[in-house]
Amino acid sequence: MHGRPRKPLKQEDTAALSAKAEHLRSLQSHFLANHHNRVYTKEALDVNAKLVESNPEWQTCWNYRKLAVQHFLSAASDSDSDVKSILDQELRVVENALRKNYKSYGAWHHRKWVLSKGHSSIDNELRLLDAFQKQDPRNFHAWNYRRFVTALMKRSDEDELKYTEEVIGANFSNYSAWHNRSILLSNLLQRKAEGYFPKENVLEEEYELVHNALFTDPDDQSGWFYHLWLIDQTVKTDAPLLVSSWPSHGSTINLQRNKCLFGSGSSVLNCTLSNIGKFPVILYFSQAVEGINSSTVTVKSDVLNVDVVWKPLSTNNSNTSQVWVTYLNIGNMELQLSKTYPLEISLGHSQGIVSSSGYHFGHPTQIAFKLCILTAHREPAEGEGEKMTSWDDHHFRAVEHFQESESILTTDQLTSENDHNQPTSNWSVETIVKEIAEFRDLLSESDCKLGKLTLARLLSALDSLSSKHAKKMAHADEVLQLYDDLMLLDPIHSLYYKDKRSLTLLHQITSTRESLLPYCHYYEGATKTIADYVCVRLQNLSLSRIGCAENLLWVQMLDLSHNELQSIEGLEAMQLLSCLNLSHNKFGSFTALGPLRFLQSLKVLNISNNEIGSHSIDTRRYLCSSPLSHTEEFAWDRFEILAGSFNATKFWEAFLIFDSLNLTELDIKGNAVDDENFKLFLVKVLPTLKWLDGGELS
Amino acid sequence: MGGELATDKHVLYILSVEKRKDDFESVAMEHLRMNGAYWGLTALDLMGKLDTVDVDEVVSWVLSCQHESGGFGGNVGHDPHLLYTLSAVQVLALFHKLDVIDVDKVTNYIVSLQNEDGSFSGDIWGEVDTRFSYIAICCLSILRRLDKINVEKAVKYIISCKNMDGGFGCTPGGESHAGQIFCCVGALAITGSLDLVDKDLLGWWLCERQVKSGGLNGRPEKLPDVCYSWWVLSSLIMIDRVHWISKEKLVKFILDCQDTENGGISDRPDDAVDVFHTYFGVAGLSLLEYPGLKPIDPAYALPVDVVNQIFFSK
Ligand SMILES: [Zn+2]
Description:
- The structure holds two protein chains of two kinds.
- Chain A is α/β, with parallel strands linked by helices.
- Chains A and B meet through helix 1, helix 3, helix 5, helix 7 and helix 9 of A and helix 2, helix 10, helix 13 and helix 14 of B.
- Bound molecules: zinc ion.
- Chain A: It is an enzyme of class 2 (transferase).
């Protein structure tokens, strides 16, 4: 099926081919008759042997041979030589078939099956493999078989590592060999084999080896992924850490008498939290973890005496998540005015919090914060909360002074737990600095894509290693420039670089109080009496992807309009979010809004002027929980009560998303999906809705 | 060469292959006729021409390939194997004829092939491969019987085949390969486990499969091939990273591989066409939202309307 030229057959070829076809056909029927009648004569086996050579992918042929072997073995004497000669015959047939087609799954498996009987010598196998691997050094069947044979022979990982070095030495452009090297080295590092611990020395040699490949031909991809893997090995910390939390350590959360909250970066918006009388605590980890529960995380408080239930914010079935949340029920607490109530959350004092790769959370961490009940509160006047949210510029006023921002942003909010983080290893930083120098060198000679991309990644890695101490992204401007260059240099992958650029930009913006301040604005739309309405406005930044939610956990009002977003993965961490503007982006489906389902406080959503309904292929289909991925049952009963007259196969996505939300305002105009029929459906599914597409519902 | 999709020619080509049973090519492909039926019929459905086929004839032929064990063979009288069992179930799903089989019997066959470590054998002879994990999971999900296997262990085994490049191999330690990645990502998608995929790393590896001509290869430093339009694209779509490649250039590459005279699509421009690459070319174009084609589901490899009908009707 591969690599045959397209040309009309000549007369004589047609004749020859049809003779061949007839011959093959008669072999096939002869063989099938033998197979069905369990005929294992020498003649029958010869017919089969001819077939496995011309049709090595026909499983039934190999099955027949296995049955024949079993038949002979049961009849053979117990003498080892009888058994051996039966099996050796099989090895010969396989070898012939492989010489015809060494990409045959069936042939390789038959060989494994014969060898697993344990009567044949395996010494020959490496020699046979050498021949195949010379013929095609990238053949993955041969490499798989090599791993099988070396395991059977108990050949050491060290010896195999040397073999990959030989193969790479002969020709560095062999991705298969680099791959196998990463497997072997991972094993050796993981079990801390002699000479492979600590990993520092080992990795240094690996860098040198891969530099030879990369710098000889930077366009050859063989070493790219190995180098990226080495960088990862250099900078990663195995144990999960707490990256940030809400409330943050040392903060004071001011609650109004009617229990809505503001201060310390939160603003009063629609009093959503008071409506449910619940107060979120968000834990944001450096990687997905499991095992967050009331025994691994303790909440100490004089006023709160209930068991808390932690929930992972994820749509998968594995019960692991990078972000966990609990809602403390303050609705039934007896809180007095003007009094502060300390709360303390401790985690990591007992084992049980584990990353998906099996590492334990190892840094006992405390988050202490205070709840304060304020008296200065005015009940909203009649109808005041009933105003529609406006995202127009003139409703926003810049936050101009740091003084003023003190109540909005405290340094603690941006990350907590600085003192709890492991000291960054000097070796990691030095290695990355050295690599940066190497790649700057490479770039001084040629303007290659790999050089720029790797340099961008290295600089970002260096910034994140250093940011554990100083929260600055010192190299962000250079990284942004590199991604800009790459978009021009490698246009077919330009959106990859754009996504990376967006993440870098958001990192830069959210890294410090000073950098975030220009994006913070007072919202003066709903009520002028409270000055703490803060909106983070990140519109018109060409963002194609969001990130850094860990730095924005406190945000209640967010404007991401006029960007190029098609997903909001990660936004689910922002549990306080109440108003969200996603208009004028590139969202292509309702499933792209999946993360919103976790936002209990969300009231106002603007998704106008997107591409919902314009695409036949949905790229978020399997990243949103649904019956397709067995992450959720379809709520037939609810669907039928609410929207029985509508077609489920057509509206299931919208139903999944909106049924779990309590929106009061929704703007969806400017999307292909938004017709009258659909609006009727929305009004049924969202009974709390007061405004739709800018119009008040009666 | 190039231009637009020669839909009518491809439909005729697919129908004609069925009739040329005595060609050498057809005889040599006898053993995977069930796969061939799935490729050809799905391509026809995507092009809106499934009604040109005699449903009863196909269904009764499919049933004649089923064994007492519940599994299906690649052709009448051939041994059963997971490879053909999935194709048989998919073909029946295309025609909304899943009710003609004894679902529990097929389910039991698949369930019997799960191993202690969560992996799946392709048949009773014990070849293990993550391809078979995908087949088992996809097939059981279509039959609404996924709860009959140990999903947690199945997922764990697939994850044990994950590599440093974010991709997946046949067995632990096996090199990443686009076809294998499709199987593993597809199985993880269907079991709600895509959080275990390193989407940015794998997405970068996958998007770097696009070469200058616009075509996609299956592994680094290999030639592009139309069949990877499916394996790579569907994987990129499932992890929402398909915008990292140039869709326009890939569309052009696939169209350049058409035989505009006699119909059919080949692996590379000017090579001989076959049903396998015709299906993958058409399915790839469907994933690229090529006008006039029905959309295909990236995980179940069936038209979206067929899949939605299974999961969203009572
Ligand atoms: Zn191909």
